[in-house]
Amino acid sequence: MSPTTTGTGAGASSGDALNAEALDLDAQHVFHSWSAQDGRTPLVVAGGSGSRVWDHDGRTLLDFSSQLVNTNVGHQHPVVVAAIREQAGVLTTVAPATANLVRGRAAESILSHAPEGFAKVFFTNAGADANENAIRMARQVTGRDKVVSLYRSYHGNTGAAIVSTGDWRRVPNEYARGHVHAFGPYLYRSEFWAVDQEQECERALHHLERVIQAEGPASVAAVLMETIPGTAGVLVPPAGYLTGVREICDRYGVVMILDEVMAGFGRTGHWFALDAYGVVPDLITFAKGVNSGYVPAGGVIISEAISSYFDERVFPGGLTYSGHPLAMASIVAALGVMESEGIVANAARIGRDVLGPGLRALADRHTVIGEVRGMGVFWAVELVADRATREPLPAAAMGAVKAGSMARGVLPFVQDNRLHVVPPCIVTDEEIAEGLAAIDATLTDIE
Ligand code: PLP
């Protein structure tokens, strides 16, 4: 599909009029998340294909955001769309307690990419409820209460998930009990006065262990972490950190939950980000990339040990739409095309040979870039007002970065003082060159 063929079927209206109608209806009737309702100037998105989206007038943007870092197979992949259509003609809803072929196939496909020792998949509607249910499993299995997570993290916008989140978003929502936070490794702004990654790793592990000891290990059910904290700035952990966390969890009988909602299913150039570290948690949570968000879906991948704990005990949790047929069909199709089209390998190659080197070359030219971090198609460019003090670039300048990128045809993902460069895993070399040129020109303007 191309921009000129999109629309709502209301043939008589011009693209401009449809854009205006979308904005007007949105302003009047839609209540938005994480935002004041007035004064918003949202982008109109009417259609998309591959790495691009467009409005009703055909104005096209290269999607370097993957929306909310979820369109791993790109927009409107024809095989995935066809699978959803086909499933819609057969069965569009089914109770979770039934046996359903497409659900079984989706679970089988997910497990085929997980490390050894994982037995089953519990399906949810998104990432937040995946974490919610993983926490519940950990509490059931250990008979303990507390969850230790990182200050620099995002785990979703429901009861326990938002309180596990470390940033400001937990504060107005802090009603769940039993949550404790710690600092993770982040050498560029080290909390531990570390001078290199090795020291940062060692000190962050010591800090985590001291938090668990001080809370009382007998009260700690789980450590919940994003394998690579994403929204907090693609904080790629140093070698040895996650395996060190695994050892600490084993020492105190704590369940290790890795949140792969953003980092999973190809984004890092691995099926799971944890594959890059050789770490095996007890529970893995996922959503987003599992089906590129074509139908809401998420879930928990459960180790054999935790799964068998529930062989003769009831797991007190469930959702009407757990394993929804449209979501399951989209998962089977999305993972199928990721395999057949080598999409994970493409993300790895792009990160290693094109995007990583391209961003580092930008850092050589622009003093406003403080640090570049990432792997695969999962990168953050940290922008600073002063390289020596590392003072973050102020919000107004970040607004100009966003506006400048969009004026040059690139939809960025701007978070605090960072430009997250997170295109779909199918992105091409030419598209990366196009996007980097727009960022380059925008940063020249800012400086
Ligand atoms: N976990 C991580 C790491 C995320 O990035 C997100 C969303 O951005 C979530 C959980 C929550 O997922 P959802 O918005 O699908 O509930």
TrEMBL record:
GO MF annotation: an example: transaminase activity
Keyword terms, alphabetized: Pyridoxal phosphate
Keyword RNA-binding: no
GO annotations of cellular component type: cytosol
Protein name stated in the entry: Taurine--2-oxoglutarate transaminase
Superkingdom of the organism of origin: Bacteria
Keyword Nucleotide-binding: no
Family affiliation: Belongs to the class-III pyridoxal-phosphate-dependent aminotransferase family.
